[in-house]
Amino acid sequence: MPIENKAPGKDVSDADMIDKFPLAAKKHPDHRSRFAVQGVEFGGDLVPIFAGPNMVESEALIVETARSVKASGAHFLRGGAFKPLSFPYRSEKYTETREDGLAWLKIAREAAGIPIITEVMEERFVDAVADVADILQIGARNMQNFPLLTRVAKTGKPVMLKRHFGCSLRDWLGAAEYILIEGNPRVILCERGVATAHTHRSSSRFLLDLQVVPAAHEVTHLPVVTDPSHATFWRPWVKPMALASIAAGADGVMLEVHPDPDNAAVDPLQPIDFDAFGQLMDDMDAVAKAVGRRVK
Amino acid sequence: MPIENKAPGKDVSDADMIDKFPLAAKKHPDHRSRFAVQGVEFGGDLVPIFAGPNMVESEALIVETARSVKASGAHFLRGGAFKPLSFPYRSEKYTETREDGLAWLKIAREAAGIPIITEVMEERFVDAVADVADILQIGARNMQNFPLLTRVAKTGKPVMLKRHFGCSLRDWLGAAEYILIEGNPRVILCERGVATAHTHRSSSRFLLDLQVVPAAHEVTHLPVVTDPSHATFWRPWVKPMALASIAAGADGVMLEVHPDPDNAAVDPLQPIDFDAFGQLMDDMDAVAKAVGRRVK
Amino acid sequence: MPIENKAPGKDVSDADMIDKFPLAAKKHPDHRSRFAVQGVEFGGDLVPIFAGPNMVESEALIVETARSVKASGAHFLRGGAFKPLSFPYRSEKYTETREDGLAWLKIAREAAGIPIITEVMEERFVDAVADVADILQIGARNMQNFPLLTRVAKTGKPVMLKRHFGCSLRDWLGAAEYILIEGNPRVILCERGVATAHTHRSSSRFLLDLQVVPAAHEVTHLPVVTDPSHATFWRPWVKPMALASIAAGADGVMLEVHPDPDNAAVDPLQPIDFDAFGQLMDDMDAVAKAVGRRVK
Amino acid sequence: MPIENKAPGKDVSDADMIDKFPLAAKKHPDHRSRFAVQGVEFGGDLVPIFAGPNMVESEALIVETARSVKASGAHFLRGGAFKPLSFPYRSEKYTETREDGLAWLKIAREAAGIPIITEVMEERFVDAVADVADILQIGARNMQNFPLLTRVAKTGKPVMLKRHFGCSLRDWLGAAEYILIEGNPRVILCERGVATAHTHRSSSRFLLDLQVVPAAHEVTHLPVVTDPSHATFWRPWVKPMALASIAAGADGVMLEVHPDPDNAAVDPLQPIDFDAFGQLMDDMDAVAKAVGRRVK
User: Fold this and answer.
1) Which whole number is the average pLDDT over C75-99?
2) Residue contacts between A and C (CB atoms, under 8 Å)
3) Which residues on B lie below 8 Å from A195 (Cβ)?
4) Which of A109, A233, B133, B236 is the most buried (most CB within 10 A)?
């Protein structure tokens, strides 16, 4: 039949789940992966929160933020030492701190007693990042960088795999399979917005796809978290989309938190400040409890 | 500048809100319309629930459903007597009941003591539908059928305006303005899914856009409800997306409820049954309370 | 199978073409509708050209344009007397000329000896428009306004059915079927751009979908034309997309032509002037001949 | 202003072109890069054709294909020795031939006297691929794999940069800039389809975006080619979209050609056979000549 037919009841076989995703696929309807990272459990009733700045701008900034988000109950400190940029040019302000940033993350980790998640963009830095990070993050643009996935998987560290903004759930699970096949079972999926015709603001480039949360849970046992900050690119929408993520069943939420959002080195329209984060932790916990889970 | 630039900080003027949406635009940051329909208040702490079958298949079905959803706490009975179909052909099962359906809705309204929302597709039926309905629904395909909007607005009845699956928030507010300009202030916006590259199931044609809830609240005082059933087209996703809608700040939720979903005359993959609806009312109420609102 | 699978070889039945599109579907591989409108043949080797301003601004403008495009070889004069607007407010410049516009189109038709295509937006104006127009145009926003389609079909006049920017080929053929079922076989499909994530300019809202040309030809015998002006919304792209349309097999091209584009009452970024149109007619004819057809 | 506004006339500055794309941006309106690869000139009146199988399945197959497409006038032989797969599992048939494939390409290159384009997916294989290939191809999934871009750029070999199916023109030019900044000016952009709501067949995953051809030409001096085979994923649409590409101004066309398409190791729905390719060369040449260029 020559034309597109997305009608209900279309008989598509289950072969994909067996052939393409033997490791990511659920084995029974209630199958959910449960694993701990530094004592924080994924896939259970806890909904872990990842909080911190877009970039590790300085030692002072990351240590201050680590202490603050830890005090508010965050489970992981996020922050980028390496940062992909669509263009090869950096402004003076927008500078990757790279090895320095990794060192500062390590200091913040110790100072605040909070585990770290940070992005790794290149194979040659995998070991250096793995030395600091408790979870290695694969950015959206690298979702299908298969050699990098393989290399990261081999570290044995947990991996957060962000969904590319143009890729399907099928593509995403295929990428997860590249990690799982290396014998690394601790894969966390992260939805961070998709490219669509309408995102509602000229400053917003993506739409947070919350439908993918139940859709992923239907087929895979892997935990699914969301990143409302990067998806919405707009501070006022972060709270409602974070709460909606938890209500939709997300197994974690990643949030951009900065001591002085308006002066963030990058993307100043999206981070929330410490007070807003503290309040949001309470609000997220309330919603989590309403759906039988907890943030705190 | 010749290429697309959706970067943060782009300086776009507020002129649109003043020139194009003088009636739909918020006049101050906390501006929210509040109005009652048959004693049910919109825009306040209550999150009204609209429940019922896709189609008014028979008198017995609609009366039974009205009584059941009312008993579970629904605020409005939904059901279509007129039903747009992409093709001019109807199967034996999939038949509009039209004037009969309207009469049965009226009977159900009296029998169960629940107000009615139903779709009107043609100007010539506006009076007949308005005679039965407490809220007139404009379907997604008619969102920009401006003569119909004008005619419906003139009835003075509240209007639910569904967002077309290919239209922007800007288009949607423009359509609302066509109703408001007739002196009819009771307009309810309803998000029911957008066409995107990936909807996660071959049986699912749309993606519920929850980001539009805070986006609409940012610019308009009109209440915004969602329709997870039509958006997802898939029963198991209705609950998580209904809960997420409320957490995102939706001012109402529309749900397809059928006594025997597998044998529904149309779209049998999406309705939930009476028991599931009763349970979902409790779950929605819990989430609503977590965000300072209530369903019951 | 629970996740989206758009893989090659998916076995989808041909039932749709028989059940949903019995009139629009091709009956054999070479099946193409051929019909004449005022002596201009559709579906043959000729590629008819529709040219004129977005709006019938004045009698002088439309008569001047009619003579000019006719002299350059255009087959139909296009121009809107009625014009859908996303908002109910009109600037002083952007005013529909309505009945006056229809009268001026009639004058232009006689003065230049060129048949007319113009849009009809409301059932109540169908007769008035049909009195002037040789082809009745259904705008994208009304593609699924089924009562309007039925009413227009009953005039017996040829109908150009524009594709909605959010609708599928399947939806489009379904709408065509509503016209065909009234016994009106002269339906012309018109692609005018789809809403997508990226349109390449902030001033451009749509992407001209040329892939739909062979896709439609594969399943339907109806002629398919394109409208590069509305799709691209950007004058410099009109010529390449018009030429590409013909190379892709389009059975006609609609172009916005204005004596003074920069001062057009609406959408001044998209029309081309008389000289550019004259040159484009030559260029289109050259491409048409390269693919075994002709514009002149 | 809080809502999306893609209206005409929006005043967006040209700063992007100067700041973000100093090397890719046109310096004057007629600026077009011209460079030769093995004597084949890009950016001039010639429209080079890249033809060959999806995968280098065997020595016999690639040598036979090289000779045939060369005889028909193709300028480059395409074929993958390395092939990205969404899943880590390969069927028996669908096996990368890797180093063997590279060796066979080298043999075919000598046997038929035709230069080679082939994809490089990993930094560690860049030298091996560069030893064989006259042009190094970066696949869509690696468009923003910046370390790979840098590494490939440093070889000094011409680079074909495929556009990711979810990325904007802005993203694409940013990626090109990563190559140009290494002092490698021979960058060829290749459009191969975008993810959209509607692609018209359940077997087709992308829509060939021909609007990007004039859009790219408006801002960059780099040549732009298209790949209708991968975009459409459907043999009958390859010819119309190839012809449309040339009419739209494409500076080259990449085509999948296989001696026995139905038995191709991968994606058997998209390649054309030798006879069809020979005929298409004539047809493309005719369209090219109609727009002042040539294929032969």
Assistant:
1) 87
2) 63
3) 197
4) B133
